[in-house]
């Protein structure tokens, strides 16, 4: 199908912040995503104590779920409100500190140390700041990224994963001429060209 109507669509950082402020977060799943539960074995691949990355994490409940299993979670989210709501909704004490390499960025870390959420643009991150990951749960990031930024996003994600990592990606299928997005329609052919 034709994705021409979405190609030039741009959602600004301010629009995402406004969605959080207004509570317009229909993309948030209170119970966690059933596909993560279904494919958890693929993500973990028999391994324990993994570093798992949540791009554009919002306040995803799966971060706590995986941390409780003994994994180390790192997320990135532009909305400080979302990050603080994650910690408060799970009654998790945390500390907050500036990220010296990124102007204006903050890192919120659970006092247990196993959940670290960066509040900044995902494009400000690099492996020198956050390290590399054994797994990625991309539940709503690629489909939220502006279509013109997909190659940049995919290149960043590839640079953040270890050789034997697992990358779980959820997309949505619909007629892109009927919805302006986000979530944006990303055809399977484009996923293959972005990630190989």
TrEMBL record:
<dbReference type="GO" id="GO:0005737">
    <property type="term" value="C:cytoplasm"/>
</dbReference>
<dbReference type="InterPro" id="IPR029063">
    <property type="entry name" value="SAM-dependent_MTases_sf"/>
</dbReference>
<feature type="binding site">
    <location>
        <position position="56"/>
    </location>
    <ligand>
        <name>S-adenosyl-L-methionine</name>
    </ligand>
</feature>
<dbReference type="GO" id="GO:0008119">
    <property type="term" value="F:thiopurine S-methyltransferase activity"/>
</dbReference>
<keyword id="KW-0963">Cytoplasm</keyword>
<feature type="binding site">
    <location>
        <position position="139"/>
    </location>
    <ligand>
        <name>S-adenosyl-L-methionine</name>
    </ligand>
</feature>
<dbReference type="GO" id="GO:0032259">
    <property type="term" value="P:methylation"/>
</dbReference>
<comment type="similarity">
    <text>Belongs to the class I-like SAM-binding methyltransferase superfamily. TPMT family.</text>
</comment>
<dbReference type="Pfam" id="PF05724">
    <property type="entry name" value="TPMT"/>
</dbReference>
<protein>
    <recommendedName>
        <fullName>thiopurine S-methyltransferase</fullName>
        <ecNumber>2.1.1.67</ecNumber>
    </recommendedName>
</protein>
<feature type="binding site">
    <location>
        <begin position="16"/>
        <end position="27"/>
    </location>
    <ligand>
        <name>S-adenosyl-L-methionine</name>
    </ligand>
</feature>
<feature type="binding site">
    <location>
        <begin position="121"/>
        <end position="122"/>
    </location>
    <ligand>
        <name>S-adenosyl-L-methionine</name>
    </ligand>
</feature>
<keyword id="KW-0808">Transferase</keyword>
<feature type="binding site">
    <location>
        <position position="77"/>
    </location>
    <ligand>
        <name>S-adenosyl-L-methionine</name>
    </ligand>
</feature>
<keyword id="KW-0949">S-adenosyl-L-methionine</keyword>
<dbReference type="InterPro" id="IPR008854">
    <property type="entry name" value="TPMT"/>
</dbReference>
<keyword id="KW-0489">Methyltransferase</keyword>
<dbReference type="InterPro" id="IPR025835">
    <property type="entry name" value="Thiopurine_S-MeTrfase"/>
</dbReference>
């Amino acid at each position: 199908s034709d994705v021409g109507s979405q190609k030039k669509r741009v959602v600004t950082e301010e629009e995402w912040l406004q969605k959080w402020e207004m509570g317009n977060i229909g993309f948030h799943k209170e119970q966690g995503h059933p596909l993560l539960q279904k494919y958890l074995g693929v993500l973990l691949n028999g391994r324990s104590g993994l570093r798992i990355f949540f791009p554009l994490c919002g306040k995803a409940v799966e971060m706590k779920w995986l941390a409780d299993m003994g994994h180390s979670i790192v997320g990135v989210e532009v909305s400080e409100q979302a990050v603080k709501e994650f910690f408060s909704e799970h009654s998790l004490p945390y500390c907050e500190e500036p990220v010296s390499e990124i102007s204006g960025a903050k890192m919120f870390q659970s006092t247990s140390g196993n959940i670290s959420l960066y509040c900044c643009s995902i494009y400000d991150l690099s492996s020198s700041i956050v390290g590399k990951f054994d797994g990625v749960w991309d539940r709503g990031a690629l489909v939220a990224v502006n279509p013109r930024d997909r190659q940049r996003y995919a290149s960043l994600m590839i640079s953040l994963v270890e050789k034997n990592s697992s990358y779980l990606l959820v997309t949505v299928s619909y007629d892109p001429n009927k919805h302006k997005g986000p979530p944006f329609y990303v055809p399977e052919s484009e996923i293959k060209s972005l990630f190989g």
